Amino acid sequence: MSESSLSSKLFATAKQYIPGGVNSPVRAFRNVGGEPFFAQRAKGCRVWDVDGKDYIDYVGTWGPAILGHAPQAVVNAVQNAAKNGVSFGIPNPLEVDMAKLIVEWVPSIEKVRMCNSGTEATMSCVRLARGFTKRDRIVKFDGCYHGHVDALLVAAGSGALTHGQPDSAGIPASYAALTTVLPYNDVEALENCFATLGDEIAAIIVESYPANAGLILPQPGYLQKLRDITQKHGALLIFDEVMTGFRIGKGGVQEKENITPDLTALGKVIGGGLPVGAFGGRADIMDMLAPDGPVYQAGTLSGNPLAMAAGLAQLREMEKNQGWQRLEELGQTMETAVLETLKKTGRNYQWYRAGSMFCLFFTETPVKNLTDAKTSDLNAFRSFFHYCLNHGVYFAPSQFETGFISLAHTQDDLDRTAEVVQEALEQLG
Ligand code: PMP
């Protein structure tokens, strides 16, 4: 980004008024160096910056843009809904349509409540699990991100049974002490933890496919193990499907892997690009929520008609177009190209993909958990990232993120991406 660019000028001004110049930290490009570009508009798989340069986008507003940016069906739905009012704070019919769709599509969900972000969804799942089980301890996994919830912003102390240390200032150590962090994909650590603390544990919360440390897939049988051990000890299993819900398939990872969690957190795709989250699960647990039960949860804008209209339009469009099948095909096309390029350039980097979600780790170590992910060569990633960005391909500005393909990516876009990826790997030297 040259200093005279409009993006650069905007960033300088933004820094005067907004902490770090951004409204969410990863946007600041701190992991890759340089400065972020400012978006002017986005359509299909492309984003245009304020200086007129365009990019093939694999961030997709961090997951929601599964149809691509500003799909006509979503734009129309939002415009039409807005004519009737932008917010009511009174029950509206679209909330019922959305709840019905979620219950029909997501196997484990019998009742669902809407909220405004993924963070709210996971926070509410944790409170509900504690209220339902009357236990306080939460188990999470190293490298899994569940939003900026106090109890879940704990990832350090990866050893089994290590009591959590908060990742952020401002989180009382006593909150974090109720969170136990385990290494992902490690059955022995899990068993040891439950052997020692089993009767204190309210719930395990897990990203059904961890996608916030790059993309890490569960070893065969691991998710079932989480289901079995929680059941055995009277704890709940919470699937965080904020990223994977409606992206991996109509019913998320739980449908694909045939695992039934007790509670599920949703977000991103479900809002069609508007600020939405949801959480749902077993009716007997969900009925613990206010106004029927003792667990309080609320929201001025929850079930907002524009957000419901956008989400419903996006989900119906996916279903109508057999979107998930097409995304799998696009994912396979990208995978073939990347694997060929790795071979040609003599790199043994680790590639992982689930449908339209992907990650190339700049390491030769197979990645089963955060410790493996951290063996990545971050300098090589930085150089790769900036080469791609300069040549019009926008991947997430951190090694520890997942890429997203949308239905708007065409064969031509994937071909161009493959060319740029090959050049970017070649220039690493
Ligand atoms: N859970 C997961 C798995 C996520 O990826 C995210 C966001 N990246 C969240 C929760 C938090 O969602 P939000 O940013 O909407 O609060």
Automatic annotation (TrEMBL):
Please list the residues that carry the modification N6-(pyridoxal phosphate)lysine: K268
Give an example GO biological process.
protoporphyrinogen IX biosynthetic process
Say if the entry is tagged with keyword Cytoplasm.
yes
As cofactor, the record names: pyridoxal 5'-phosphate
Query: GO CC: one term?
Result: cytoplasm
Q: In which pathway does it act?
A: Porphyrin-containing compound metabolism; protoporphyrin-IX biosynthesis; 5-aminolevulinate from L-glutamyl-tRNA(Glu): step 2/2
Family (UniProt): Belongs to the class-III pyridoxal-phosphate-dependent aminotransferase family. HemL subfamily.
Which NCBIfam families does the UniProt record give? hemL (TIGR00713), PRK00062.1 (NF000818)
Specify the protein name.
Glutamate-1-semialdehyde 2,1-aminomutase
State the gene name recorded for this protein: hemL
